[in-house]
Amino acid sequence: MVRFQGTVLTRLAALLLACVPTAGLAQSSSETEPLAGSAQRSEAAQTGIELTYAGRRFSEWARMVRFDLDPATRKQGYLALRIFGQLGSVQKQSLEAMLAGLNSESSEDVLNEGYLELRRLGDAGTAELVSALKHEKRTHRLAAARTLSTGYFNNVTEDIVAGLMEAATIDDAEIRKSSCAALGRVAQSTEFDFSQQPPIPLRARHESSDTTRRVLEVLNLALEDEDMNVRIVSADAIGRLGSKSRESLPNLIGYLEATDARIKLSMPREEEPDIQFDPPIQSRNEFLAFLGEQGVALRALQRLGTDAKPALPILEAMTSEDFRTQRLINETIRVVSGESSPGNLLPGGGFRRGRSR
């Protein structure tokens, strides 16, 4: 709980805030009391209100994320600083405190948690994550890319697009993979309103933003990446855009043909993809996560619906000894030909809950 000490009015405000779950606070940037030793005074101090979280003041949490030896305490410190920042009264100092701790953080686990809390601060935190894509340490660059690949973007800026497009082409497969996934989220954020359930398109069916077109250029190239995981993430990101990505259909068809050829030629299997689909795949689509490249390519074509009709000759010629894959091929043919709908696929990549048919 966050405790206020001051006037009766501020205590009443604190009581109201105490009724709001920590995880449910709105995303915003973060300002908190200045670091220990600073001559500045926060807005909270100027108004006579002392902010605390879990019995500790801001300055204590700021020291803990930098110097405490217990990783669990440092994680809690980033949570506390994020909550201070979400109150909105001491935004700049909270962000500075989090960055000071992250820059000296040696634990990869704590670093990931810290960057996640930074992302939850909203636009200010997201901007810092984009800057971290060029951090001198790889662990920071990778943690930033992975964090940006989760969730959607309230405001897509040119800095975000340019930073991720550059990171998606560097000589580091793990960072390329996460950056391509993040670019998919960027494009989705410019095409769908995720405040609605299910998400609704922001434009006419075949219209797409300039940002989406730029992102698709990068993802189309990534379908030919030497790393299998990068290819899978890119195909999935293209598919999530549905009809908005119909200009990428030739690239998806080429990707499906190349994947099918690798299987038929019995080429050495690459190691299983380390892919986490978000949101989790449910009901009859759950097996898609285990089908690798071919399954993701087929699912992407399903999301394009009848716009993917040029792929029908290739789909009809495909066969598989795996009954799950063959079932998916047959289902994709029905969806692309217009004989059936994509089942429980939702706009933007989600799934309806329900029993398998």
Give the SSE layout:
Layout (H helix, E strand, L loop, with lengths): L1 E2 L4 H11 L24 H4 L5 E2 L2 E2 H10 L3 H16 L4 H13 L4 H12 L3 H10 L5 H11 L9 H10 L5 H19 E2 L6 E2 L8 H13 L5 H13 L8 H16 L27 H13 L7 H6 L5 H15 L20
Antiparallel strand pairs: 1-2, 2-3, 4-5
Helix pairs in contact: 3-4, 3-5, 4-5, 4-6, 6-7, 6-8, 7-8, 7-9, 8-10, 9-10, 10-11, 10-12, 11-12, 12-14, 13-14, 14-16
Give a written overview of the molecule:
With 357 residues, the chain is an all-alpha fold. It has a domain at 1-144. 54% of the residues lie in helices and 3% in strands. It has 16 helices and five strands. The strands form two sheets. It has a three-stranded antiparallel β-sheet. The chain has a two-stranded antiparallel ribbon with strand order 4-5. β4 and β5 form a beta hairpin. The chain is elongated, with a radius of gyration of 23 Å. Residues 1-48, 266-270, 275-289 and 346-357 have low confidence and may be disordered.
- Output the number of helix runs: 16
Q: Please compute the radius of gyration using only Cα atoms.
A: 23 Å
Class by SSE composition: mainly alpha
Helicity level: 40-55%
What low-confidence regions span 5 or more consecutive residues with pLDDT below 50?
1-48, 266-270, 275-289, 346-357
* Topology order in helix (H) and strand (E) letters: EHHEEHHHHHHHHEEHHHHHH
Give the overall shape, derived from the CA principal axes.
Answer: elongated
Sheet with the most strands, sense and barrel status:
3 strands, antiparallel
- What is the strand content? under 5%
Oligomer designation:
single chain
Count of beta strands: 5
Q: Please tell me the overall pLDDT.
A: 79
What gap, in angstroms, lies between the N and C termini? 46 Å
Order of strands across the biggest sheet? 1-2-3
